[in-house]
């Protein structure tokens, strides 16, 4: 999921702790592989481990950034083929 901030960065940052807690929960449940803010900070990327775009959209709808109108997300499918994540295995 690739996000684009819809509000000024100062507004986004007020909800950042809530957003990061949500991402941490996804990681603990084996649904998020990694995440981070883009540079420059115009949005972020969350690599989800789900089977369908519908699942990704359902999860991202619960992100505090989305619920507060601070960011929108676009789903981009991706298949790991090499590099640091080439041997990635699902947790659950």
From TrEMBL:
SUPFAM superfamilies: Dimeric alpha+beta barrel (SSF54909)
InterPro entries: Dimeric_a/b-barrel, YCII
Record-annotated YCII-related domain positions: 2-74
PANTHER family: GSR2449 PROTEIN, YCII-RELATED DOMAIN-CONTAINING PROTEIN
Family assignment from sequence similarity: Belongs to the YciI family.
Protein name: Uncharacterized protein YciI
Naturally occurring in which organism (per UniProt): Actinoplanes teichomyceticus
Lineage, opening ranks: Bacteria, Bacillati, Actinomycetota, Actinomycetes, Micromonosporales
């Amino acid at each position: 999921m690739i996000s684009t901030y819809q509000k000024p960065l100062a507004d986004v940052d007020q909800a950042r702790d809530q957003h990061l807690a949500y991402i941490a929960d996804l990681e603990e449940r084996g649904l998020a592989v990694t995440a981070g803010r883009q540079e420059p900070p115009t949005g972020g990327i969350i690599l989800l481990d789900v089977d369908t775009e519908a699942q990704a959209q359902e999860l991202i709808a619960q992100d505090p950034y989305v619920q507060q109108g601070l960011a929108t997300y676009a789903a981009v499918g991706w298949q790991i083929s090499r590099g640091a994540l080439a041997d990635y295995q699902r947790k659950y």
